[in-house]
Amino acid sequence: MTDDTTTGPAVLDDPAEDPASAPADDPGDRTARAAAGADPRDLPPVRFWPALDLTAVDFDPVLAELMREGPVTRIRLPNGEGWAWLVTRHDDVRMVTNDTRFSRAAVMEQQVTRLAPHFIPVPGAVGFADPPDHTRLRRAVAPAFTARGVEAVRQRSAAALDALVDAMIAQGPPADLTERVLSPFPIAVICELMGVPAQDQERMHTWTQLILSSSHGAHLSEQAKDEMAAYFTDLVRERHDSTAEDVTSLLGAAVGRGEMTVEEAVGLAVLIQIGGEAVTNNSGQMFYLLLTRPELAERLRAEPELRPGAVDELLRYIPHRSAVGLSRIAMEDVVIRGAQIRAGEPVYVSYLAANRDPDVFPDPERIDLERSPNPHVSFGHGPHYCPGGILARMETQLMVDTVLDRLPGLRLAVPPEEVPWRRGALIRGPEALPVTW
Ligand code: HEM
Hints:
alpha+beta, CATH 1.10.630.10, seven-stranded mixed sheet, three-stranded antiparallel sheet, 17 helices, 44% helix, 8% strand, disordered N terminus, binds protoporphyrin IX containing FE
């Protein structure tokens, strides 16, 4: 965090005055507003939020400045059009994300200002669906992601993790913890949960790496996505009358019962299969924290009973993503803390900001391994709450247990400032985590 206002967001001319950059809204409403003259609302300035290549676990200084400015501000991001509202307080974030007056499906119809350069919404994609469609898609796979469903893959996940750590130890230090453990482990776990047969897991690993890495070029990435989709199409079709509880069987059965189309099922399967990337990057930040603040790792080695709560505190603290994710569109006029949001206007929430709300988390900048209660929103809130939340916690706890206990002398193999960080990425994390022991 910094108080240096020069790193804060720049004020733009108010695009509310500029119809070309204003978000699309109901034409009738627009005419009425034009007749009424300039926007009569007392609007906060629009702040430009550039894409920053932040390193380590630094909190975004622009977001810090926006939080200081007020609970509801306005932002413009590097891509898309116009401006959007930004909501940062914990209770407001929970309200917006759990209120049907804010729609995800409506985002498909606008070029909302955004961080990501490309906006290729896939019709039927779970992130852009509203209830009841969204509920229908999520319900089909829900059993695999419950505590019981996740528990069913814990033993095999632990064995897979041990095998990866065995191999790393056998080869000897130094090693890249990301390459050897943090990247392959979530892929192995998700293959279990998806019901991908063991002999196909290597292929799945290769496709996932190609889809997620930009270094091989867009063409190879697209091709890998098509191949993965073709693979899941076959698997889902084969499993149309399955009663098993892995994700592809659940999807196959839902297609068999006519509850979703094959395309919807395959779209969801691909999204879930590559969702483990979030765990790789998030745990990369987590191990960076544990390796650069050895007092935290020592405490967790000495008091293992603290680990479940500590993982949640680290999840709260970690700046998981750059800027903000997907917006929502207000479907009617809504007032939040005095800010008059009009129907048709886009609204972003920041889960990262909500996790630092001092009214909910006393001394929010401090990592308190015993923080309780800890109602963080790192996995989101409301209907779009991350389906992988319980799974990600299980994976992260296994990695913390295994790595801390099996490698008592683990330390960074390079000075902290030489750890390479992902650049231009939506999800933040180390490119590699060179370690020795
Ligand atoms: C530490 C790891 C993870 C973090 C911090 C995380 C965080 C999030 C967040 C904040 C959201 C967005 C909520 C919103 O749109 O408002 C989300 C959505 C999602 N996540 Fe995760 N996630 C993680 C791991 C995973 C895993 C392992 C999977 C797959 C198994 C997964 C699959 C998804 C999917 C499919 C969505 C879209 C849900 C929807 O729109 O209904 N995530 N996640």
